[in-house]
Every structure is written in structure tokens, then in C-alpha cells.
């Protein structure tokens, strides 16, 4: 039941890692979401350890503070934040949730 959450954020316009992006991890329930961890991407755009090493199976959310990131760069953006919901399954020990961003688009995939 161990789940280790990591992420990598890349700025597709600049072609560089997105350093200094605030990232939060949430547990999503039927009625509400509860923040369980916070971190900031390093100089390589990575968060290598987000939250507890073990998570119960269920729905979780990673939120990226992209508006603040682009504001620091003096770039207008359509997305003040990016939210990605995903499912933690029993017996899986690692989840990598990357984000490729630009001011007016983003994409993600299940990383390894």
C-alpha cells in the first residue's frame, strides 16, 4: 500500500524546467478535499518527494501554482493553477505525475 508521489514540471515555451512552482497534494473525498503535502519544484523542475511515503487507495489531486510561476516571469497566462486528479491503487508503490506547461495549454501523462 506504499505510494511515493513525484512530479516534473517543464516549461514548453522556454524549453527549460519550471523551477519554483508550488505544488500541493490533496486527498479527495466525496464531500471535500484535504491538503496533505506541499512542495516547490527544484532547479530541475522536480519534486522528488511529495507527501507521505504511503497512501491509502483512493483519489488524489496534485495542484500546480502556474499563475504565480508565469507572473514571476512577467508572462500572462490563462491558467492560474493546474489541477490533476488521479487514482492510487492497492499495491502500487510509485506515482509520477508530470506536467508540461505553457501560458495557454498544458498536458500530463502517467509517468514512470
Automatic annotation (TrEMBL):
Transthyretin/hydroxyisourate hydrolase domain residues are 1-111
Query: Which Pfam family, any one, appears in the UniProt record?
Result: Transthyretin
Q: Broadest EC class? A: hydrolase
List the keywords (alphabetical).
Hydrolase, Purine metabolism
Signal peptide, first to last residue? none
Family matches, as PROSITE patterns: TRANSTHYRETIN_1
Superkingdom: Bacteria
* InterPro entries named among the record's database cross-references: Hydroxyisourate_hydrolase, Thyroxine_BS, Transthyretin/HIU_hydrolase, Transthyretin/HIU_hydrolase_d, Transthyretin/HIU_hydrolase_sf
The answer to whether keyword Hydrolase applies is yes
**Catalytic activity, reaction form:** 5-hydroxyisourate + H2O = 5-hydroxy-2-oxo-4-ureido-2,5-dihydro-1H-imidazole-5-carboxylate + H(+)
Sorted alphabetically, which SMART domains does this protein's record hold? TR_THY
**Iron-sulfur in keyword set:** no
According to the UniProt entry, what is the EC number of this protein? 3.5.2.17
GO molecular-function terms, A-Z: hydroxyisourate hydrolase activity
Q: Which NCBIfam families match?
A: hdxy_isourate
* Self-association and partners: Homotetramer.
Q: What does this protein do?
A: Catalyzes the hydrolysis of 5-hydroxyisourate (HIU) to 2-oxo-4-hydroxy-4-carboxy-5-ureidoimidazoline (OHCU).
Which family does the entry's similarity section mention?
Belongs to the transthyretin family. 5-hydroxyisourate hydrolase subfamily.
Q: Kindly provide the name given to this protein in its UniProt entry.
A: 5-hydroxyisourate hydrolase
Report which gene this protein is encoded by.
Answer: uraH
Amino acid at each position: 500500500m506504499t505510494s511515493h508521489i513525484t512530479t516534473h514540471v517543464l516549461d514548453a515555451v522556454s524549453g527549460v524546467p519550471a523551477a519554483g512552482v508550488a505544488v500541493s497534494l490533496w486527498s479527495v473525498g466525496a464531500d471535500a478535499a484535504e491538503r496533505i503535502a506541499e512542495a516547490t519544484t527544484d532547479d530541475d523542475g522536480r519534486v522528488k518527494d511529495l507527501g507521505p511515503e504511503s497512501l491509502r487507495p483512493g483519489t488524489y489531486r496534485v495542484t500546480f501554482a502556474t499563475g504565480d510561476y508565469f507572473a514571476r516571469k512577467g508572462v500572462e497566462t490563462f491558467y492560474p493553477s493546474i489541477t490533476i486528479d488521479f487514482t492510487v491503487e492497492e499495491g502500487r508503490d510509485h506515482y509520477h505525475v508530470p506536467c508540461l506547461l505553457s501560458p495557454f495549454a498544458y498536458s500530463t501523462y502517467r509517468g514512470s
